[in-house]
Amino acid sequence: SAKGLKDYYAAYFPIGVAVNPRMMQNGPESALILAQFSSMTPENAMKMGPIHPEENRYNWKDADAIVQFAQQHGLKVRGHTLCWHNQIPPWLFVDSTGKQVSRDVLLARLKQHISAVVGRYKGKIYAWDVVNEAVPDGGDALYRPTKFYEIIGEDYLEKAFQYAHEADPAALLFYNDYNTENTVKRERIYQLVKKLKDKGVPIHGVGLQGHWSIHEPTAQQLDESITRFAGLGLTVQITELDVSIHAKQHERQEAAATAKSEFTNELNDRQAAHYAMLFKVFRKHRDKLSGVTFWNLSDKSSWLDNFPVKGRKDYPLLFDQNYQPKKAYSAVVNF
Ligand code: XIL
């Protein structure tokens, strides 16, 4: 059968894709996953809100379906994510009267959650995004002022990594974030991760989400990010890659006055060139980079169709709305 992304990159790193459980039931989508990818990340199914909707109730169905499909077909799974301020269940930070819980109660809940989720998939999930997006984009603070930070304090990060490590000592544990090419944020993330490393916290990797656009990052910025984080003695992965045709990530809201969006030939070419550049840098750093995962399967449906502007179409991936390879696909596999 024809070669897929995973075959072209077999000597480099696994190529992953973010999935939802409906794809496992969808003929063309599951076929495309199997032909092209060697790793999967549940797009939402393992987040705290979906998987742990009430304090004493877990919803394993969707996550189980994804892990089972991966096991059946020999794909790796990246777990995403154990501690994040978004997609949080309503019960997490309050008691039954609605009053905010204490540090001790929240730590106990975090431990219970992480032990249950990581423990259930022990040996089946090779890498976990343990803490997601703990560093703010602007301001002067090192820590994003989330409820985890406010209630527990800065050691919520090390606790989360310790709980995950206890539940599956063989899993690779990642800190994951976006906007990692912005030099101010990059240095903050570096400091935060370095603190954890210096303390002996079980952290093994840094995930660069890679929500980029045809305008960003430059090869040099990307090169610097990978080199900087690998300098901590950690592995690096690109965990949520897409290349938006719209404005730069941090400017997208302002540039979004018109919701109209057309994938012109010119954009097709620019996007292919950008993807070619990104993968050239990835290949150069194959000793530091241990995975590249795309955030969604094809342009038929991307989270960017509803972010940051609801209903504005984007075309950020390697496959078009009919699951056919785009110019960007050729650019990535012809090297
Ligand atoms: C996104 C999903 O793709 C959407 O379906 C969901 O509505 C919101 O979250 N950074 C992350 C991912 O770490 O978990 C986010 O995924 C995209 C940004």
Automatic annotation (TrEMBL):
GO terms for biological process: polysaccharide catabolic process. It is an enzyme of class 3 (hydrolase). It catalyses: Endohydrolysis of (1->4)-beta-D-xylosidic linkages in xylans. GO terms for molecular function: endo-1,4-beta-xylanase activity. SMART domains: Glyco_10. Transmembrane segments: none annotated. InterPro entries: GH, GH10, GH10_AS, GH10_dom. It comes from the Bacteria. Keywords: Carbohydrate metabolism, Glycosidase, Hydrolase, Polysaccharide degradation, Signal. PROSITE patterns: GH10_1, GH10_2. Its EC number is 3.2.1.8. Pfam families: Glyco_hydro_10. Residues 1-335 form the GH10 domain. The active site is at residue 240. Belongs to the glycosyl hydrolase 10 (cellulase F) family. This is Beta-xylanase.
